[in-house]
Fold:
Amino acid sequence: MSAPLLQTSGLTIRFGGVTAVDRVDFTLKESELRCLIGPNGAGKSTFFKLLTGQLRPTEGHVHLRGQDISGARPHEIARQGVGIKTQVPNVFNAMTVQENLWIAARHKHTPNFATELTEQILTDLRLTAIAGKEVGQLAHGQRQWVEIGTVLAGEPELILLDEPAAGMTHEEVERTADLIQEINKTRALIVVEHDMQFIKMIAKTVTVLHQGAVLIEDDVARVLEDARVRDVYLGKGLAA
Amino acid sequence: MQLLNGMTGALIGSAIAAVGILTAPLYVDLFQIMQLTVFAAMAVLALSLGFIWGYGGILCFGQTSFFGLGAYTYAVAAINFADSTPAILLAILIPVIFAALLGYFMIYGGISDVYLGVITLTVSLILFNLVNSTAGDFYKIGDARLGGFNGMPGVPTFNLPGNPGYILTPEQAWMVTGIALIVVYLGLRLLIASSFGRIIIAIRENETRAALLGYDPRIYKLITFMIGGAIAGFAGALYVNWGAFVSPTIFALGLSAQIIIWVIIGGRGTLIGPIIGCLLLQWLVTEIGAQQAFDANFVLGAILIVFVLLVPKGIAPTLRDMVMSRFAERGDAPPDVSVKVKT
Structure:
């Protein structure tokens, strides 16, 4: 049996006395789409930072297709095929939309092919009209799309999206949901989101984080009905 | 497309400048030719910082370290070999090696930007004190006496490559220095337009994003730093060729600060800016020195303050923005960039 795409075992990080991620065992199969939810401060973004090498775990391991990548540097993990859209968009502000995507595509490809791939993604994401604009001057929702485009241009096999729908209009949220399902035809994704409508649109399996630990992991309908999940979201007692 | 047009513009501008440089001895007297030669040598130095700071995002406060090392290497090698060609090559090579070592420890050691500035400044001061204390017969490399604070006089100037007997005249040395400036400028323009150039700009913009796309920011920064060292070392050789003399003041704080002022005033994030800033301020300082009405440092400080407050982008980017907005007014680009809502 081959190793799962992504597996964490006892993954833990402490900042002083705070345990932000607490012994998380998480497994993602090839081409799976997983949603990761949890209240503010549950450790979702920190978990992503551990997966991408932006933070080094205090304890535990991350395995990508059986290979131990815990403690590796971000660029090394990116080269293994992990792409991430961060919560606060990380983009190249003084560069144009086209250049942002081109830089991402250039890592694997020749300059000419990178230009072709960039054009393709600009068309797919309907960004052609703003391709020549500097990213620093765009609205938040557009910057989100640019960053998603940048991630796609890097052609990762596992894509992590941290709040991809934040700051988007209703129409844009629906487009994002469609896009995620389109991407999922060929690649695995983990999506962190607060918007429950959005989660319902895309989710199959949902993992709930609470205070750094996994609270529950199950089918989306059952997770959303679970009393403990309501408790942690609304505060204990209120949902009782 | 825009890149291509920019490059065409740079080529046309460079061609015009080259014609100006080559014909200058016909209508400018020897004293002014000598002035222009040192200005051009310093402009090469300004380009080195303009590149690593403006494009690589590395604020090196001690760019004179590489400039001075290049100058001393050239002097020592030219005296020993009695031929300037290998001396010029060594004046590039030694600073590159030094930049590689220094840069490796700073960049791979994860030193933050501010401390990188402090360390490079300190290194230039260490070199200043080191060379300053090499007076006496004991300190010599081959036939070359380092001379401590007195410096090294009578350094052989450039000769024709392969013909050490043919020493260039001051007019020819000016042409070499002027053309060298253009070559360095165009070389950097090409580098910036290349994939490597795009990537270092991306790293300047957002190091985290670049790393998350698989680029190792450290190696790109190190190479950028080394290229800056190479150009500064080359400028050092050009400088010694101008005066046939080098002394420890080449490492001193004053020059380190001046290079930064040239880049700020000329405009960071452009290559023409540092050249403009350097030529303009050197000309001004020379004029003030001739008048003796004001202290040059006082004027330089005042100009810096005025620019930081009123023209923070520097001359070249400000002029470019003005031209761009003029184009926009003529209707070539829509001036209205307000958000359009479509349902």
